[in-house]
Amino acid sequence: MSFLTVLYACVFYAATAMLVGGLVAKIRCYARTPAPLKIPTTPAPTTTGGVVLRMAREVALFESLFKSNKWIWLFGWLFHVSLLLVLVRHLRYFTEPVWFWVSLAQPFGTYAGFAMVAGLGGLWARRFLVDRVRYISTPSDHLILVLLIFIGTSGLGMRFISHTDVVAVKAFFLGLMVFDLQPLPSDPALLVHLGLVALLMIIFPISKLLHAPGIFFSPTRNQTDDSRERRHIAPWATKFDAGSGSKSE
Amino acid sequence: MAAPQFEVPKLTGNIEIPAVKADASAHIKSFPANAGIQEIIGFPGGAEPGELVDGWHDKAIAKMGDLLGRYRSLQVFMDACVHCGACTDKCHYFIGTGDPKNMPVARQELMRSVYRRHFTFAGKYFPSLVGAKDLTKEVVEDWYKYYYQCSECRRCSVFCPYGIDTAEVTMAGREILDTIGYGQKYTNEIMGKLHKIGNNLGLPGPALQDTLEGLEEDMLDATGVAVKLPLDVEGAEVLLVTPSADFFAEPHVESLMGYGKVFHASGTSWTLSSKASEAGNFGMFIGSYENTRRAAMRIREAALELGVKRIVVGECGHAWRVAYSFWNTLVGVGAGGADPFSIELQKQLDPRYPAPQHICEFTNDLIKQGKLKFDKSLNDHRVVTFHDSCNVARGSRMGDIPGGQFIIPREVIKAVVNNYHDMAEETIGESTFCCGGGGGLLTDDLLELRVKGALPRMEALNNVVEEHKVNFLALICAICKAQFNKVVPFYGFDMSMVGGVHQLVSTAILLEKEEE
Ligand code: SF4
Ligand code: SF4
């Protein structure tokens, strides 16, 4: 077993642990922190079903962003939908036999790679071209885009320029999943691609990528507008209802 | 109007997004509160107004940690922003000043940079990479300035893909500042008056009684009908809670008389309360749950003491947000409570009506039932438009369906006037622009900000003035009324064009003369 294989295996185990552990900790923190007041941005749905729909539109279509800015919406939505297709396409490296719908998605996934990089390019350009966005951009905002663009282009490079041994790559990942190490090909493009993906997994729970779980916990979007019909009160606030807190003077 | 010490923006016919001008509004700063003012509302104060208390740094960080643990909104909003920039052009204060720190995301970033530094791995170990900053005196100074250049209007939250509401961040920022002795004079002083006397103006019960009697006489002279403005009547059906400005400020009183006429014409028994003589609740502006609750307790106590069956709220934006969204939580004014505290009041209230109810909902119901008669032509000298108040639009509702807060006031207006025109779509409804004076900024020390922040609304207004000869800006908020009264002259409009929805009702309503 080559050093490289062992190294990458360790990196992926560590990255997965950090991704999962970090996200679980963050999600637990969000779930446990109370939302003491009703603050949905109105007009808001008055039923739970309505809230599910609002959230679904927000997550799948980026509804608020669409209202807000068509360029950011276009680039952002293009990037996220393409990323989803690309991820679906990559499931074939983790499943044997490959699921039916994953094989169906293969050709779309390939072109989505280009769309993804195009979307990222658009988002990055805005960070230079629009003075307001330039003002708020931090080095990490640029670097995350660079990271994603490198992941995309290194992947596209392997698909269209210097092919890698995908059968061996698949054997490596299938093996990783059952703790049975298989040799990883040593193409530079592949090593860069995988290394950057591992880096992305590691920074996910400690960066702004937390917007992914965060949106589901955003009180302005996930609360029902029923404050007159139902009493909503946080555990820490119930103490006021009894005792000395219940006087105005 | 004295000549302004600053440049009033020119109206161009379009709401234009300015280029970023660093520190363009850095000189605008409201007066800080002294220790006396701070203490009345439960916060410390330094030797001089604005002087930080000993150990301020650690106290501020500890308070931030406390708030992060108590408010999911703050915790999620600190993490979720991706700096996409979608909100950057949505704030009226940015549009009016061009100061980049008035872009909602940048305003949040004042706190987020400190949050990162103290509460995140990346900010602790790679501060410059992620824009993390220590909490220095300069940062505190920026917080004070720019958290008091936000009217907590929530316009940014409509347009953020994650619903990040800068108002929540501003409230947290102000609460932290209050905790280290850096409160704002205007808001905190008013908060203290409300706690001690019962209303923002510090108007005691007997003075209120006199004022109301004077207004009753005015109405008798003008209409020949004895319209009453009852105070502290036990056993009345409706308790009306309204902003205290309605008792004496112009044009607010015109609406108060409108409410009185609606109650009179419909034969509803009602009362005002000297204890609950203020609907406004500045506790929300400073993010203080305790102060907001304490102020709201007056309404609960008055309702219980007077034994009323319904609670109706007069024309006030933030007050309606607090009433509609928070009263049930804070003091059990609402329905559906299962605990003894809320049941005590809820078993007294009439379940056929929502509690609380907005005066526009109340009037509109009566109109729908045909219980009110109007002569619309009495308003024919007016061409009316309606400004959706930010807190009503984005922080509350009226009626049964989402968006009822946009429909119901317009239905009331259209029932009493013949000439009505909306302003441009992107400036009303959920996208409405704040008047520029909300959220604790309605003070003369912030006049420049108020004038500049009104710019987008003034553009939209000017367009309907030119196109449709609009001469009346109808409002349902005491702060909007006072703010526009003050700032429209800067843009060349006459302040008599500013008024309340119930002022229009008051003009057109037909009252039956009692049999002699
Ligand atoms: S809440 Fe309103 S005033 Fe505050 S940043 Fe957002 S848009 Fe501006
Ligand atoms: S729109 Fe939301 S996510 Fe985007 S920069 Fe503004 S606050 Fe951040």
> How many strands, what sense, and barrel or not for the largest sheet of chain B?
4 strands, parallel
Query: If helices are DSSP runs of H or I spanning 4 or more residues, what is the number of helices of chain A?
Result: 11
**Each distinct ligand:** iron/sulfur cluster
Overall shape of chain A: it is globular
Distance between the termini of chain B: 48 Å
User: Which class of the largest domain in chain A in CATH terms?
Assistant: Mainly Alpha
> Can you tell me the overall shape of chain B?
globular
Which secondary structure elements does this structure contain, and how are they paired or packed?
The complex is a heterodimer of chains A (249) and B (516).
Chain A: H1 3-32, H2 48-61, H3 63-68, H4 70-90, H5 100-129, H6 131-136, H7 139-160, H8 166-177, H9 188-203, H10 211-214, H11 219-222
Chain B: H1 35-40, H2 56-70, H3 72-80, H4 92-97, H5 104-119, H6 121-125, H7 127-130, H8 137-147, H9 155-159, H10 166-179, H11 185-197, H12 205-223, E1 238-241, H13 252-266, E2 270-271, H14 289-306, E3 310-313, H15 317-331, H16 340-346, E4 357-358, H17 359-368, E5 384-386, H18 390-395, H19 404-416, H20 447-453, H21 455-468, E6 472-475, H22 478-487, E7 498-500, H23 501-508
Parallel strand pairs in B: 1-2, 1-3, 3-4, 5-6, 6-7
Bound molecules: iron/sulfur cluster (2 copies).
Q: What would you say this structure looks like, in words?
A:
The complex is a heterodimer of chains A (249) and B (516). Chain A has 249 residues and is mostly helical. Chain A folds into 2 domains: 3-39 and 65-222, Transmembrane di-heme cytochromes, Chain C (Fumarate Reductase Cytochrome B subunit), CATH 1.20.950.20; 40-64, no CATH class. Chain A contains 11 helices and no strands. The radius of gyration of chain A is 23 Å and the shape is globular. Chain A starts with a helix and ends in a 27-residue tail after the last helix. The relative contact order of chain A is 0.16. Chain B has 23 helices and 7 strands. Chain B has a 4-stranded parallel β-sheet with strand order 2-1-3-4. Chain B has a 3-stranded parallel β-sheet with strand order 5-6-7, with helices on both faces. In chain B, helix 22 (478-487) links the parallel strand 6 and strand 7 (498-500). In chain B, helix 2 packs across helix 3, helix 2 (56-70) crosses helix 10 and helix 5 (104-119) packs across helix 10. The structure holds iron/sulfur cluster (2 copies).
